[in-house]
Amino acid sequence: MTGEFRPAPPPAVLRPFVLRYLGYREESATPVLRRQAPAAGVALVFGFHSLELSGPAVGSTTTAAFVGGLSDTWVLTRFTGPQAGIQVDLTPVGLYTLLGGRALPSGAVPALDELADPVLAALPERLAAAPEWPARFALVSEVLAGRLLDVRARRPAPEVVHAWRRLEVTGGRVPVSVLAAETGWSRRHLQARFSTQIGLGPRTAGRVLRFSRASGLVAGSRVALAEIAATCGYVDQAHLSREFRALAGISPGGFRTEWAAAFPFVQDEAASGEQDQPA
């Protein structure tokens, strides 16, 4: 298998909504299976080639361009042959704004042409026609800025944004009762509005944020699992393992092994100090 990952920061003006851009180009003569575990960001994928998706919530489907909302379950991707495109990692606040005031339910991975959004649906073809990564990133920025910075854009309630950011900066370690008190809303009202605009309830979102940090450490380091459990606020390694089974469908050791096998060239780059971190 050969490949490259080209991460790039979004323009500063988009950073409240966009976490990063990632250009990718790969090719494999044999099937490549990857596990996409719940993460803190929302993946907007402008792919140029078909990709098989399967999982507890998505079933089984094939698409090239899609978006996955904030989720508490995993998706498996599989391809043979070439893959290329750009992945945009959005915040849930960014996705709500981009989609004109709606969130996706947990586990939903709709194809872009299912969103009744001709601009987004046409973007993969426009990106494929662009000559180089900088031109592609610039085109993505132009489209996103037109939506996310529009003064008429529908945005989540300020109280919801506050609750999400508090969960984000604390790794999900703020009780819902505290978030409710800080917003001035009742717990029930906060849970309802947060779920509608972020895609998960605040308690589950906090759980996903904590898991996202842990899975990043498991995949991208050789740190002992017990140490990762303590760092991320789990009671012990057994607690960490239960969360991996529940949210990723695999043990943390199996997840680490899968990740290393699925991104061998990234492992090589990491070893040489030139790592480009994939999703």
TrEMBL record:
Domain HTH araC/xylS-type: 159-258
Alphabetized UniProt keyword annotations: DNA-binding, Transcription, Transcription regulation
The keyword Kinase is assigned to this record: no
InterPro entries: AraC_XylS_family_regulators (IPR050204), Homeodomain-like_sf (IPR009057), HTH_AraC (IPR018060)
Pfam families the UniProt entry points to: HTH_18 (PF12833)
Xref: SMART domains: HTH_ARAC (SM00342)
Record protein name field: AraC family transcriptional regulator
